[in-house]
Amino acid sequence: MTEKTHENRIAVVTGAAQGIGRELAVRLAARGAKVALVDLKKPVETASLIGDTAIAIEADISNESGWKHVAQFVERDLGEVDIVVNNAGIYPNIVIDELDLDVWRRTFAVNLDAHYFSAKQFLPSMRRKKWGRFVNFSSNSIGIAITGLSHYMAAKMGVIGFIRGLANDVAADGITVNAILPALTNTPGTSGVPDEFKKSVWQQQAIKRFAEPADIAGPVLFLTSDDAAFVTGQALVVDGGQYKIS
Questions:
Q1: Closest by alpha carbon to 233, among 173, 169, 182?
Q2: What is the pLDDT of residues 155-194, one digit of tens each?
Q3: Domain holding 69: CATH number?
Q4: Which of 110, 115, 142, 212 sees the fewest Cβ atoms within 10 Å?
Q5: By the 8 A CB rule, do 185 and 204 touch?
Q6: Among all residues, which ones are annotated catalytic?
Q7: Is residue 1 part of a domain?
Q8: Chain segment 137-149, per-residue pLDDT in tens
């Protein structure tokens, strides 16, 4: 029987239509949370896996109006938000010679600006309740040299700076803010990655296999629980031992 570690909590998960976001949303619900599932297209399939304790919301989380839209539906249908997981991300592979400003700005808007907007939207109610959890997705790629991802790595490094600053701003109100740095993970989003490249990634890991969404969801469940009340401002690398601290 699954332990109800998140009972009566209300969580927002972005990028919930598939992959890590879907896995995490289903597992949060199994632990007692009510979950708002957010994606560019309404994640109805994920909602159907969960049932009555989930709502599906179509929204662009890269801007303030998108987050206001999310908040309107969550507060109307579920209540005040306790947990935000900023999982949604984009990673267009473009070398600097071909990288235009629109792609640069869109990459930052989805991968970093969204985290700022979510905090501005939900911190007031979390402060009133003296409890809240933010888990923002960065990437282990910030410590690995990968061609064509300078914009992506810059945004994901920005996530680390943001969570560390924000953690200090809100700690007195019982709110924690942490980051997850996942490995290349077996999701629909990585289905087009060549097998040769996947193998080269595994060879650098201590655990010689592709990361699965469940491998990433487990640590997020911990960070969004009461058990992680004394963990904040941390960047947790979940990559099978690929990223070596130097």
A1: 169
A2: 999 999 999 999 999 999 999 999 999 988 877 777 677 7
A3: 3.40.50.720
A4: 212
A5: no
A6: 152
A7: no
A8: 999 888 877 889 9
